[in-house]
C-alpha cells in the first residue's frame, strides 16, 4: 500500500526511475515516426521534377505539388495539436499516421495531376502531426536530460532524410548500372514500359512502408503520463510510470502521484481546510485543458511577445531548411556517370538531382554534432545567431550561377548550419515557454 500522506509529482517520478529501457523503446517508436516524416518531406525534392517530366507539367504546376503539402502541414499542425491536448497524444499521432500513410501510398496510383495534388495535400495534413511524436517522447524523459535527448531524437530526422535520398539514388543509379549488363532488348523494354510509368510511383509507395510499421506497433505504445496527469487521470498515469519503473528495474517514489499544478497550489494552501480549494482547482484545470479559450493564453500580455518571437524563429528555420532542400533540386545540373542511358534519365529527371540531394542530406550529420557541441557551451540564442549567419554567408553566392562543385559545397554547408539551428530552436522554445510561464 502506498503512503497517502506522501505525494510526488510527475517530474520527481521521472527523475527517480531515470532514463532506461522503457524510454529507449519510446525513443525507438517516436524516432521511427519522425523518420517517416523526414522521408515524406524529402520526397518533395524528387517527385516534382520527375512528374513534371513524365506528365509535361509547367513550372507553376510542378511547384503546386510542393505547395499543397506545406499548406496541408499548416492545417495539420493546428488540427493534431488540438487533438493531442483534447483526446491524447496517442490518438493524435495515430490519426496523423493513418492519414499520411494512406494518402502517401495512394499517391503512387494517382491517375492524373489533380488527384495527385489532393492526395499530397492530405499527406501534408498528416505530416503536420509530426510534432506530436516529439512531445510524446519528451514527456517520458526526466527534465535534466531533455536537451541531450532532444538532440539524439533529432538524429532520426537526419536518418530519414539520408535514407530517402539513398532510396531515390538507388532507384536511378543502381538500376542504370545494372542495366548495362542486361541484353539490349531488355533495356529497351524497361526504358519503354517500366520506368516511365512506375519510377516515381515506386518511390512514393516504398517511402510509405515505414509508416505502416508505425501503425503495426501502435498497440504497444503507452499514453503520455503528463497528458494523463493534466486530465486528472493520475491513476492511469501511475500505472504507466509503474510499468516504466519495472522495465528500468527501479522503483517509484513512496506515496501517491499528484499533478504538478496541484502540488504547487498545495504549497500555498497546506491546511486541511483548503481541500475544497484543491478540488475546485483540479476541476477548473481539467475543464480549461479542453477549452479552445486556453489557446488565447499564448496571446496574453505575459506571453504574446515570446509567442511572436518564437513564431518568427520557426518561420526563419522552416523557410531556410526547406528552401535549401527545394533549391537543391532546382540547381542540380546533370553531369553524372549515370547519364550513360539518356532515354532512362530523360524519363526520371536529372541524375545529378539524386547525387546532390544525397550529398547535402549527409550535411545533417555534422549539423547534429555541431548543435550538440555548441548548444551548452555558447548558449541557445548566440549559437542560433552564429549558425544563421554562417548559413546566410554560404547561400549568398548562389544568387548568381556557380560551378557545380561550389554550388553543392555551399548547399552542404548551409544545410549543416540551418539543420543545427533547427535542433537548437527545438530545445530553446519549450525552455523559454516554461521560464516565462513560471
TrEMBL record:
Compartmental location: Membrane
Protein's UniProt name: Major facilitator superfamily (MFS) profile domain-containing protein
Topology term for the membrane: Multi-pass membrane protein
Domain of life: Eukaryota
Main location: membrane
Organism: Ilex paraguariensis (yerba mate)
Domain Major facilitator superfamily (MFS) profile: 26-438
GO cellular component annotations of the record: membrane
Transmembrane segments: 24-44, 64-83, 115-138, 150-179, 308-327, 353-375, 382-400, 412-436
Family classification: Belongs to the major facilitator superfamily. Phosphate:H(+) symporter (TC 2.A.1.9) family.
Classification via Pfam families: Sugar_tr
Keyword entries, A-Z: Membrane, Transmembrane, Transmembrane helix, Transport
Amino acid at each position: 500500500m502506498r503512503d497517502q500522506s506522501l505525494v510526488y509529482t510527475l517530474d520527481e517520478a521521472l527523475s527517480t526511475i531515470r532514463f532506461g529501457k522503457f524510454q529507449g523503446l519510446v525513443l525507438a517508436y517516436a524516432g521511427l515516426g519522425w523518420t517517416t516524416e523526414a522521408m515524406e518531406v524529402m520526397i518533395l525534392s524528387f517527385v516534382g521534377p520527375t512528374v513534371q517530366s513524365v506528365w509535361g507539367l509547367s513550372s507553376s504546376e510542378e511547384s503546386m505539388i510542393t505547395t499543397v503539402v506545406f499548406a496541408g502541414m499548416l492545417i495539420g499542425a493546428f488540427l493534431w495539436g488540438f487533438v493531442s491536448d483534447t483526446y491524447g497524444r496517442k490518438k493524435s499521432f495515430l490519426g496523423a499516421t493513418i492519414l499520411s500513410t494512406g494518402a502517401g501510398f495512394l499517391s503512387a496510383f494517382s491517375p492524373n495531376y489533380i488527384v495527385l495534388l489532393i492526395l499530397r495535400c492530405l499527406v501534408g495534413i498528416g505530416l503536420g502531426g509530426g510534432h506530436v511524436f516529439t512531445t510524446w517522447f519528451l514527456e517520458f524523459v526526466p527534465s535534466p536530460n531533455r536537451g541531450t535527448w532532444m538532440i539524439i531524437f533529432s538524429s532520426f530526422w537526419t536518418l530519414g532524410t539520408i535514407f530517402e535520398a539513398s532510396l531515390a539514388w538507388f532507384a536511378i543509379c543502381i538500376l542504370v548500372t545494372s542495366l548495362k549488363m542486361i541484353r539490349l532488348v531488355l533495356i529497351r523494354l524497361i526504358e519503354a514500359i517500366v520506368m516511365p510509368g512506375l519510377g516515381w510511383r515506386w518511390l512514393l509507395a516504398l517511402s510509405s512502408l515505414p509508416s505502416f510499421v508505425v501503425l503495426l506497433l501502435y498497440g504497444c505504445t503507452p499514453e503520455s503520463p503528463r497528458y494523463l496527469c493534466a486530465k486528472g487521470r493520475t491513476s492511469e498515469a501511475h500505472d504507466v510510470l509503474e510499468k516504466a519503473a519495472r522495465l528500468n528495474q527501479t522503483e517509484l517514489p513512496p506515496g501517491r502521484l499528484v499533478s504538478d499544478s496541484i502540488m504547487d497550489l498545495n504549497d500555498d494552501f497546506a491546511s486541511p481546510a483548503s481541500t475544497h480549494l484543491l478540488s475546485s482547482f483540479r476541476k477548473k484545470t481539467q475543464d480549461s485543458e479542453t477549452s479552445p479559450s486556453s489557446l488565447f493564453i499564448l496571446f496574453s500580455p505575459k506571453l504574446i511577445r515570446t509567442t511572436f518571437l518564437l513564431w518568427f524563429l520557426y518561420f526563419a528555420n522552416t523557410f531556410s531548411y526547406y528552401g535549401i532542400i527545394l533549391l537543391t533540386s532546382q540547381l542540380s545540373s546533370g553531369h553524372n556517370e549515370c547519364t550513360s542511358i539518356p532515354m532512362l534519365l530523360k524519363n526520371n529527371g536529372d541524375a545529378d538531382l539524386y547525387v546532390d540531394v544525397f550529398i547535402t542530406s549527409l550535411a545533417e550529420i555534422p549539423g547534429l554534432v555541431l548543435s550538440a557541441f555548441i548548444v551548452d557551451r555558447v548558449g541557445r540564442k548566440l549559437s542560433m545567431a552564429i549558425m544563421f549567419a554562417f548559413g546566410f554567408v554560404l547561400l549568398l553566392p548562389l544568387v548568381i550561377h556557380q560551378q557545380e562543385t561550389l554550388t553543392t559545397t555551399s548547399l552542404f554547408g548551409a544545410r549543416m548550419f540551418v539543420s543545427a539551428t533547427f535542433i537548437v530552436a527545438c530545445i530553446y522554445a519549450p525552455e523559454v515557454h516554461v521560464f516565462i510561464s513560471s
